[in-house]
Amino acid sequence: MNQELVTKKWPVTPRVEEALAVTLRGAEELIPQEDWVQKLARSEATGVPLRIKLGLDPTAPDIHIGHTVVLNKMRQLQDLGHQVIFLIGDFTSMIGDPSGRNSTRPPLTAEQIKLNAETYRAQADKILDPARTELRYNSEWSDPLGARGMIQLAAKYTVARMMERNDFHQRFTANTPISIHEFLYPLMQGYDSVALKSDLELGGTDQKFNLLMGRHLQAEYGQEPQCILTMPLLEGLDGIDKMSKSKNNYIGVTEEPNSMFAKVMSISDVLMWRWYTLLSFRSTADIDKLKAEIEGGRNPRDAKVALAKEITARFHSPAAADAAEQDFVNRSKGGVPDDIPELAIAGAPLGIAQLLKQASLAPSASEANRLIEGGGVRVDSSVVSDKGLKLGAGTYVVQVGKRKFARVTLS
């Protein structure tokens, strides 16, 4: 870029201030903010969109809505007219991101990366506008770099600076092995910014070191350094720990609509506003108005329903969201959903614990008995209190908790 355009002081207009507010919504940190303001001002004055990059390594096939926080921010910036770049780290996945790790991450196979990348792309298309999204794979420039290029790249950063990174420092002091190839990861992620000439890179708070590497390398290669925007990690359904499959406090983006809707409805009223900020596409003004209405006496449930419908519609459809709302209402009134599984089981008369296990409503007979003791099992709307209950031949609607149903025909 022309150096004069980079160094010129551009006027900050109301539109620039509005774009800055959109950028900062829900964000953890913008570095450096004054540089980003000038990039926005230059873009408005020249009509040249800024290049905004998000890189994701396809390390797992399962994605939950916590992963979409940065994608939502990308969509907000895309709607301001900027060029967003969804970068799939097919090359960096073979190294393994050491961020937050206390041991060397096992590398993925090429087949795993390919399958996971397809999932990630489908996920991004539900949030970003595919027609306005530049999709790239970092193997495009990383593979041609070769051994000579890799050595030249490695010469642009010192071991001392690399060891300032918290996870490397902690592993070194604990005598935990650090493989040389792990030093290459932040270098390669930073080189992505050079290859793409990015103006802004997004990532989670755990990615700060890698994002700053992009700024450093762009300066080394004579480019205007990118700004970095870190987004917080989304709290899960419990409102305490970050969303995680291992903690079972997550909503998967491929979950069926009824489950997705019901899980959003299960979060606390306090967490609801946090999710509105990070997951909703409603404007800040709309959210503030809704919050004021709730504080003025409107039922918080109305706001939660609106959020649940927005999220469900995003990953399915508005019609599916409407149906999920109706299903939730039916369940809350003790009604039976229309689309419950139907199955036939032989062996009547059959003990209730075995029936729950065979109907996949409980993982084991002992867990079934625990559910009965807790009053969480119903047969034809009546609570089961007798663990010794045996059901004869016939058809029964069996319910476990609020969400699990099955219509079972015993013979």
Automatic annotation (TrEMBL):
Q: Tell me, in one coarse class, where this protein mainly resides.
A: cytoplasm
What processes in GO biological process is this protein linked to?
tyrosyl-tRNA aminoacylation
For the motif 'HIGH' region, what are the positions? 58-67
Q: State the source organism's domain of life.
A: Bacteria
**Under which main EC class is this enzyme filed?**
ligase
Q: Which SMART domains match?
A: S4
Q: Which Gene3D superfamilies match?
A: HUPs (3.40.50.620), RNA-binding S4 domain (3.10.290.10), Tyrosyl-Transfer RNA Synthetase (1.10.240.10)
Keywords for this protein: Aminoacyl-tRNA synthetase, ATP-binding, Cytoplasm, Ligase, Nucleotide-binding, Protein biosynthesis, RNA-binding
**What EC number(s) would the UniProt record show?**
6.1.1.1
What Gene Ontology terms describe what this protein does at the molecular function level? ATP binding; RNA binding; tyrosine-tRNA ligase activity
For this chain the motif 'KMSKS' region maps to 242-246
Q: Does the keyword ATP-binding apply?
A: yes
Q: Quote the record's binding site residues for ATP.
A: K245
Catalyses which reaction? tRNA(Tyr) + L-tyrosine + ATP = L-tyrosyl-tRNA(Tyr) + AMP + diphosphate + H(+)
InterPro entries reported for this sequence: aa-tRNA-synth_I_CS (IPR001412), aa-tRNA-synth_Ic (IPR002305), Rossmann-like_a/b/a_fold (IPR014729), S4_RNA-bd (IPR002942), S4_RNA-bd_sf (IPR036986), Tyr-tRNA-ligase (IPR002307), Tyr-tRNA-ligase_bac-type (IPR024088), Tyr-tRNA-ligase_bac_2 (IPR024108)
Q: Which CDD domains match?
A: S4, TyrRS_core
What positions does the domain RNA-binding S4 occupy? 350-411
Localization, per the record, is: Cytoplasm
Q: Give a Gene Ontology cellular component term annotated to this protein.
A: cytosol
Describe the task this protein carries out.
Catalyzes the attachment of tyrosine to tRNA(Tyr) in a two-step reaction: tyrosine is first activated by ATP to form Tyr-AMP and then transferred to the acceptor end of tRNA(Tyr).
Can you state the subunit structure given in the record? Homodimer.
Q: Which HAMAP family match?
A: Tyr_tRNA_synth_type2
Describe the family membership recorded for this protein in Swiss-Prot or TrEMBL.
Belongs to the class-I aminoacyl-tRNA synthetase family. TyrS type 2 subfamily.
Q: What is this protein called?
A: Tyrosine--tRNA ligase
